[in-house]
Amino acid sequence: MSIEKVRAYFEQMGLADRIQEFDVSSATVELAAQAVGVEGKRIAKTLSFMLDSGCILIVAAGDAKVDNKKYKAAFAQKAKMLAHDDVPEYIGHAVGGVCPFAVKEGVKVYLDESLKRFETVFPACGSSNSAIELTIPELEKYSCFDGWVDVCKDWQEE
Asked: What is the torsional sign of CA 41, 44, 45, 51?
């Protein structure tokens, strides 16, 4: 199971005890927000895309949506999400538990600007019933991110 890979990864960092596992599903932003007990926008959802150069993950706030124009400007090609059945093969985690930790070699991780407005966020941990609370600097460190991007819309607060 990929939660075991993520747990082993966080054990190396001394953070495995911070992983939360739930008796209910946290596979969607709404379900994760209910399980954790926070607003959906604080759920750090991880989206899987295919570029000509390989797979990438974009971690964004729960209330953000990918903006195709911004995505194309950042990556010089149209946004093409991985097919549901291809995600485990290319990323190493199944849909509902995709996270930026313990992913397959070569997968690049980008963090979207929509996350910067929060002190802490809650990404999944490799299963459809898990999460971990991380500060933004911790998310940067433990996701081994490749950079910040601005590819989302509909999240800007008035």
From this structure: positive
Beta carbons within 8 Å of 142's beta carbon, 6+ residues apart: 10, 13, 15, 100, 101, 134
Six token digits for residue 1: 């199971």
Is 17 in contact with 11 (CB distance < 8 Å)? no
If residue 110 lies in a helix (H) or strand (E), which one and from where to where?
A: strand 108-112
Residue 48 has pLDDT above 80, yes or no: yes
Distances (CA, A) of 149 to 71, 111, 123: 9, 6, 17
pLDDT tens string 65-77: 999 999 999 999 9
